[in-house]
Amino acid sequence: MSKQEGILLFECLLAMAITVILFSVLMPGVKAWAQRQHNAHVVDRLKAFLFRARYWAMTHQQALRCCGSKNGQQCDGAWSKGWLIKTLAGKRLYYKKVSFPSVTWHQGHLGQASSLVYSAQGELASSPGHFEWRSFKQKQYLYVSGSGRARIGLHP
What we know:
Layout: H1 9-60, E1 64-68, E2 82-87, E3 92-97, E4 104-107, E5 112-113, E6 115-118, E7 129-135, E8 138-144, E9 150-153
Antiparallel strand pairs: 1-2, 1-6, 2-3, 4-5, 4-7, 7-8, 8-9
């Protein structure tokens, strides 16, 4: 009798079949996890940006404009490209370049708007509204109340 070395083709195919089955079972969970992580990242970045603007307005006792900006110089409503904090006189205070797909700011019932304004007391001087973006084909929302605070929600 000869001693067998290595693995049989059947064993190799069986291991591959088990791997494919496990992968197909785990894939939806991994996709859902990735979606939750992406949403958490967008929400955390937006909340930190709004907190910075609100804090700056209250500590310096001056109204500030927060807006989307492609180049960091002017407000052009491009919330998915960059975020800008300016004084109402136009002085640039902070700019953060970002890359999020289709983030938009919707103000009250006016629809899409280019900016929101914090008063010197940290409240919204502009109408309350919400940020909207798509994550894995599902709309996500971050609401900003009249008091200037942000919270996550499912739909407007």
